[in-house]
Specification:
By secondary structure, the chain is an alpha/beta fold. The chain has helices spanning 16-23, 36-49, 60-71, 85-88, 93-98, 114-120, 150-162, 174-181, 185-189, 215-227, 236-248, 253-268, 296-305, 328-343, and strands at 4-5, 53-57, 77-81, 101-105, 131-137, 166-171, 194-198, 209-213, 273-274, 284-289, 308-309, 311-312, 317-321. It has 2 domains: 14-248, Type I PLP-dependent aspartate aminotransferase-like (Major domain) (Aspartate Aminotransferase, domain 2, 3-Layer(aba) Sandwich); 252-343, Aspartate Aminotransferase, domain 1.
Length: 344
């Protein structure tokens, strides 16, 4: 049975043109003399992000952890949103790999208040861990792909800079924020000292991310990448896919956003499910399960029997993600399956 997979935008598969770019990539040994296609990707990504340079790494988690390792020392503290990816979905890597602890602020909406961040920063006191790094996330995964407004990003960055903290932007889905807001990547990244960008989500590449910043940051980041085993050999084949994604698949994210709003409106109209098209910023839709006797895991399992895959995100919340491998026909199938499941 064929499936309509709404679990994540990470399930996308390379299109024929991307596969052709992969097969025809010029490669070298990126650890020795360098890989020419990796260099092209790093230069293009750095230019798009408005940074001095970038490093290609296998995953978004590694990109974030390279940044954390470059900015901190054991015993430092990072400040991030309560449900940020770096503290919620990276298996405790900040503490395990770098010996840092996390101060978290904010709630389910994915936002941080600048005054709350200012209040949580540690005094310069021998008994306290040094506040070293502010981590932002754009878009915010747990909160449903929401875009933090530019004015809020500016204010948060200013709080960090006043206190002498560096700022890292987890921009795994930054391209979605760019398309949804009309604010360029360079404008978003101007308020961060380092930024990560993932190519294997909505942009449709099979693997790969970059972490970008200035020359001094990149010198430290290269060492951390080496220690984490993230420096690859004939990586040009992977970089070619990421470069294709950056050059061809950014603007089309608007299609995913439109489909996500339609999905929220149609599922929200069904009894026992709660969603609102107005609450959707990008390509992630959080749907509440309000029907008595139902929970998210049970609804997800029942939808799976109809060939529709979705991810539970809590006892009574489902996450649907639109991407280039689902379209209007998949949405029709989802709605038909949901009607059957919720009436059953």
């Amino acid at each position: 049975m064929s499936v309509s997979d709404f679990r994540s935008d990470t399930v996308t598969r390379a299109c024929p043109a991307m596969r052709e770019a992969i097969a025809g990539a010029e490669v070298g040994d990126d650890v020795l003399e360098g890989d020419p296609t990796v260099r092209r990707l790093e230069e293009a990504a750095a230019a798009w992000l408005g940074k001095e340079g970038a490093l290609f790494v296998p995953s978004g988690t590694m990109a974030n952890q390279v940044a954390l390792g470059a900015w901190t020392r054991p015993g430092d503290e990072i400040v991030c949103q309560r449900f940020a990816h770096v503290t919620t979905f990276e298996a405790g890597a900040a503490g395990f790999l770098h010996g840092v602890q996390s101060m978290t602020v904010g709630g389910d909406d994915g936002q941080m208040d600048p005054d709350e961040v200012r209040a949580c920063l540690r005094p310069r006191f021998i008994h306290c861990p040094p506040s070293r790094l502010l981590c932002l996330e754009q878009t915010h995964n747990w909160a449903g792909g929401v875009v933090t407004p530019l004015e809020r990003v500016e204010a948060l960055s200013e709080v960090a800079r006043e206190a002498g903290l560096s700022v890292h932007l987890d921009g795994a889905r930054l391209a979605n924020a760019v398309v949804a807001s009309g604010v360029s990547a360079r404008e978003w990244c101007a308020h961060a000292d380092s930024v990560s960008l993932c190519f294997s989500k909505g942009l449709g590449a099979p693997v790969g991310s970059v972490v970008a910043g200035d020359a001094a940051f990149l010198e430290r980041a290269r060492l951390v990448r080496k220690r984490l085993g993230g420096w690859m050999r004939q990586a040009g084949h992977l970089a070619a896919a990421a470069l294709y994604a950056l050059e061809h698949n950014v603007e089309r994210l608007a299609e995913d956003h439109a489909l996500a709003r339609s999905l929220a409106g149609r599922l929200g109209a069904l009894e026992g499910l709660e969603a609102s098209a107005e609450a959707v910023d990008t390509n992630i839709v959080m749907v509440g399960v309000s029907a008595p006797g139902r929970d998210a895991a049970g609804v997800a399992a029942a939808l799976g029997e109809h060939g529709v895959l979705v991810m539970p995100m809590g006892p009574r919340r489902l996450r649907f993600v639109t991407h280039l491998d689902v379209g209007p026909g998949d949405l029709d199938r989802l709605v038909e399956a949901a009607e059957s499941v919720m009436q059953g």
